[in-house]
Amino acid sequence: MSYQVSLEAAKQALKKDGGQAFAELLRHGSLIVEYYAPQHEDTQQPHRQDELYIIASGHGTFMRAGERTSFQKGDVLFVPAGMKHRFEDFSHDFATWVVFYGPDGGESPQSPK
């Protein structure tokens, strides 16, 4: 198992997945680290675990439980398991690290597929 992944390796993993918006990079116990770079629209559903988004590039609006807030590179966003959320009006270069962790406590499948 790898204990480190670079931003460049994350970008390459997206290219290898044939145009997928996300790539899983690390997994250990309940921890999953993904890199997520949707194009044009974020269609994800609520997840079964708590999650952190660490914005790697770009900017836009984040909708969480009906409330909208601006985000930019370097911001960290938290979403509890099962809460509706999505990225809106994001820049063409938007990408984020996604960290899932903790017990299964949500209502929908995991991953922003």
TrEMBL record:
Domain named Cupin type-2: residues: 35-91
InterPro entries with a match to the protein in the record: Cupin_2, RmlC-like_jellyroll, RmlC_Cupin_sf
Protein name: Cupin type-2 domain-containing protein
